[in-house]
Amino acid sequence: MSFQYPLEVRFRDLDGLGHVNNAVYLTYFETLRLHFALELLGVAHLAEVPFILGEISVRFLKPVFFGDQLQGSVDVSRIGHKSFTMIYTIKRGNEIVTQGSTELIWFDYKTQRSVPIPDSFRQQVASYQRP
Ligand SMILES: CC(C)(COP(=O)(O)OP(=O)(O)OC[C@H]1O[C@@H](n2cnc3c(N)ncnc32)[C@H](O)[C@@H]1OP(=O)(O)O)[C@@H](O)C(=O)NCCC(=O)NCCSC(=O)c1cc(O)c2ccccc2c1O
């Protein structure tokens, strides 16, 4: 099962060529990541999200335009000792327009150090895991 969340294309997402600019997809991924984390972890404030972004990749498959109705989804493909991989898929109807992934590292913001992923997260995320 994937975590699903709708994405709105705003006028300011477009560049001079009329399509959604490449940099905006990082924000779309961020929106999906935050809502996934808030729902999954049940945290009340963004400051309580216990991981940090280490790496991001994006594959641009189709141009996206103002008025397109987008649906985003998030899965987890790998959970390591301190880091895990989130997979992002953005669809317009049945068509996949963008795919990507992020490496996220479990992080103690008080000590500013990476820490092992707790077993509780492994259990919480199990239903969103895909090979
Ligand atoms: C990321 C670091 C904390 C890692 O430093 P450290 O020395 O502790 O790492 P280790 O070498 O011990 O490795 C531990 C573990 O992590 C994997 N790993 C390490 N670095 C990376 C990396 N850059 N990319 C991918 N993976 C990495 C390593 O393979 C190990 O994996 P195991 O599973 O085997 O344990 C440190 O480098 C650091 O602090 N970097 C800077 C991070 C940063 O500034 N990021 C940008 C700002 S954060 C951000 O933008 C952000 C946006 C969001 O939208 C978020 C949403 C929700 C939550 C967080 C968000 C967020 O942080």
Describe the structure.
Helices cover 19% and strands 40% of the residues. It is an alpha+beta fold. Strands 1, 2, 3, 4, 5 and 6 form a six-stranded antiparallel beta sheet that branches. It is elongated, with a radius of gyration of 15 Å. The structure holds ligand LTTK3YTO. Residues 30, 33-34, 37, 49, 51-55, 80-83, 103, 105, 107, 114 line the site of ligand LTTK3YTO. Ligand LTTK3YTO is lined by residues 30, 33-34, 37, 49, 51-55, 80-83, 103, 105, 107, 114. It comes from Herpetosiphon gulosus.
Question: Could you give the order of the helices and strands?
Answer: EHEEEEEH
Strand content: 35-45%
Weakly predicted, low-confidence segments: none
- Biggest sheet character: 6 strands, antiparallel
Number of helices: 2
N- and C-termini, Cα separation: 12 Å
- Bound ligands: ligand LTTK3YTO
Mean pLDDT: 95
Q: Percent of residues in helical segments?
A: 10-25%
Oligomer: single chain
Please report the total strand number as a whole number. Answer: 6
Cα radius of gyration in angstroms: 15 Å
Structural class: alpha+beta
The geometry reads as elongated
Topology, please?
Elements: E1 3-8, H1 24-41, E2 51-60, E3 69-79, E4 83-92, E5 95-108, E6 113-114, H2 119-125
Antiparallel strand pairs: 1-3, 2-5, 3-4, 4-5, 5-6
The structure holds ligand LTTK3YTO.
InterPro entries: 4-hydroxybenzoyl-CoA_TE, HotDog_dom_sf
Protein name: 1,4-dihydroxy-2-naphthoyl-CoA hydrolase
Family: Belongs to the 4-hydroxybenzoyl-CoA thioesterase family.
Kindly summarize this structure in a few lines.
The protein has helices at residues 24-41, 119-125; strands at residues 3-8, 51-60, 69-79, 83-92, 95-108, 113-114. It is of the alpha+beta class.
